Sequence to fold (875 residues):
Amino acid sequence: MVTKKLNWTHLTISTVTLAVIFTVFQYLIARQLIDVYYQINLFMLGINIILAVSLNLINGFTGQLSLGHAGFMSVGAYTAAVMTTKLGYSFAIGIGAGCLAAALMGLLIGIPTLRLKGDYLAIATLGFGEIVRVVFLNIEYVGGASGLIGIPQLTTWTWLFVSVVVTVVVIQNIVNSSYGRACISVRENEVAAELMGVNTTKYKVLAFTVGALFAGLAGGLYAHYFFIIQPGTFGFFRSFDILVMVVLGGLGSTTGAIVAAAFLTVLSAGLQSFPEVRMVLYSVVLIITMIYRPQGLMGNKELSFRTFQRIRGDKNGPVVNREPV
Amino acid sequence: MYEFFQQMLNGVSLGSIYALIALGYTMVYGIINLINFAHGDIMMVGAYVGFFSIAILGVGVVPAMVFAMLACALLGVVIEKLAYKPLRNSTRIAALITAIGVSLFLEYATIWLLTPQQRSFPIGTFPEKNYYFFDQQLVLTNKDLFVLVAAVALMVLLQYIVKHTRIGKSMRAVSQDMEAAMLMGINVDKTISYTFAIGSALAAAAGVMVGVYYNTIDPLMGIIPGLKAFVAAVIGGIGIIPGAMMGGFVMGILEALVSGYGSSLYRDAVAFAVLILILLFKPTGIFGKDTGEKV
Amino acid sequence: MARLSTVNLCKSFGGLSAVLDFSMEIGDGELIGLIGPNGAGKTTVFNLITGVYRPDSGSIIFNGQNITGKKPYYICKQGIARTFQNIRLFNGLSVIDNLKISFHKDVPYQLVSAILRLPSFYRGESWIEERAIQYLEIMNLADKREELASSLPYGEQRRLEIARALATNPSLLILDEPAAGMNPLETQELTNLIRKLKDNFNLTILLIEHDMALVMELCERIYVLDYGRAIAQGTPEEIRNNPRVIEAYLGEEVG
Ligand SMILES: Nc1ncnc2c1ncn2[C@@H]1O[C@H](COP(=O)(O)OP(=O)(O)OP(=O)(O)O)[C@@H](O)[C@H]1O
Ligand SMILES: [Mg+2]
Fold:
């Protein structure tokens, strides 16, 4: 539900909370009070949130099954890294170029493939992701299979934090607007949407483009945190990993995607020293979740101020809540 | 010129393996509309069963293949019962995720139990013998011959089962219209189990063939051939059995030509590029029927 | 000038001719019925008019503009709205969100304003919300606004579909079996409602209906389809007495 006016109280609470989180971590990192291992996972968490929330716009809200999100991520990562490492541009320009390149790719892929439906679209996007991977594998300029190395570590906590917040706010603001409703109507009933005046192709392409843009952002941040990017990092498995976060969190729930991204990042960090067991466990958890809670953690509901009001027993909180964060 | 025929020949052998795997995808999709992502991994399990039959029991290739087929038929049925059946009425995406989950499970359980290391079929498993034609310009190896003969035999057998047996008829009925089939007294659960059993057995046979053909196997060997076979099934129009065979051969030949004449590094990309192109012009595959939604 | 005319429309599926040489002319402000036995091709005619299917041949002229082969969303923007034989609501959305989607085609703010939450966004949203509530009130659904569309009883779902169509601000409203599944009382209410909507919104209405009482009472003219062909047209009186129509319905009672 879209609020008719800006709610100053909620905005203030959100801003203060975010500022506190930011400052605490900034302090901990600057003073080197959290060791590298936790820091890596913290950054991975932020990147995963960006990926999951942006994929959710495509899969969750617009209902288009995409298995190629890592492809967009890699386009962003390689573009940004080439801009900074090879061409000597600043980090901001690199990131911007990465986002644009990925968005352009989303647009290019979106227009023709979105004629496809359901499983066929899933397979075509999977194919797209694989093609991107093989193409980078074959370009010597970016290091081929051994990858692009020597990328400066420019992704700071500030960059990451701001990027996550911007991603979440932009996508939530789109979703909770007439444009987002148009996307959701495509998911709910494509035929009816089209007949009520919604240009469904346009909104599928919009979702793909915006989703890809943020995947590109995640890629750029990733490249400039880990020094090195390899085509293998952005294979099918990464796309799938992101999809799992979205589905586990609940398709069409941004807060769900965030919570699931956090949960899976922590889980996978915790089991890092037992890689095989980790994957076996991961797959079993996945299967069991799909059998017993196929709608994911949150369904398509959001955690919001209203949820907390309801939990506190506030009778004014309505049952359905779709509230901008 | 001979070079071209040589590549075609290689392509046909490879294609017959893809065709066998593609058949399983297509049959399962035709009947429960599920992309069984674990299918490639069932092939991998088949290759391992074949490997152990040869290496430990010391049997020949043909009995090894039969063991593999039996084991995987059972595995396919168990997977369906445990993982897919509970999801029969849930969303597409839940089923898809489960299928990928099963795929990961098979891959990493194998790595866990058997280590990620590659294994080679024991030397002498398969007598190396080459047949030369046209002044030694064209080579047909024993392996090619084995793969081709076995694959064609299995496809003929499958055609017979689908066309002329009771179970084949129920399979066709269920894929046409599950509810109607149920009302006609067809045991849908049983039919689905048979479909998984047959599809998985074919994949297992393909797994042993891959083992023989490339001589090495490893726990992740199913991923790429699995994806390509799926592409083959889609190209042929998913759900259509002859389409899957055709698609398999098309993929095999295409791949052989690309590695022969272009860059073998681009081999995998070409498969997907072809897939996307075909889908764009014919969104339901070459042989697929356009089933527009009734409004 | 005719509001809508179709000229020699043809559409076949595989070998089956669903609609054959169908021509029809609807004047401004008319209330027209389209009847015929099951499978006669009525819904297919609607799908052709609204752009869901592209005709094999023939043309569709709406307000003097040729809309043949145009996309459904474009046709909707020109002023044709419809309901569906099998209800197609946005099931996972609330009643009011179902309606808000109809206003999307003239959304009063840019995507950028939505992202940045500029004042035009809030103004636009309140405009949309007010309008949506107006339509819900007209259709007597205002107190259900926050409920899920799928949780409404059948009759209310049909009303919501009509509300949603109306909210696109059409000049031609086409209804596919609006009374299907309703009891006589509900059907009578629906009859009155359709009359009221036609007058209040200056609508031209085309409807498919199997309930002959409703058709005969409401429609000024009727077209009859059988096996994809128009076999008769005329006033309810003429149709009632047309031997070909009676034959097509094979002894089914007409009127
Ligand atoms: N998308 C489609 N694909 C194939 N056949 C179709 C399609 N849509 C309609 N048909 C066929 O066209 C014929 C006319 O169908 P239509 O739905 O227009 O009939 P109708 O007059 O609306 O019938 P009813 O009163 O039962 O709603 C039927 O034989 C139907 O099966
Ligand atoms: Mg109809």
Q: What stands out?
A: The mean pLDDT of chain C is 92. Residues 158 and 178 of chain C are 7 Å apart (CA to CA). Chain C is about 40% helix and 25% strand. The beta strands of chain C are 2-13, 16-27, 31-35, 57-62, 65-66, 80-82, 172-176, 204-208, 221-226, 229-234.
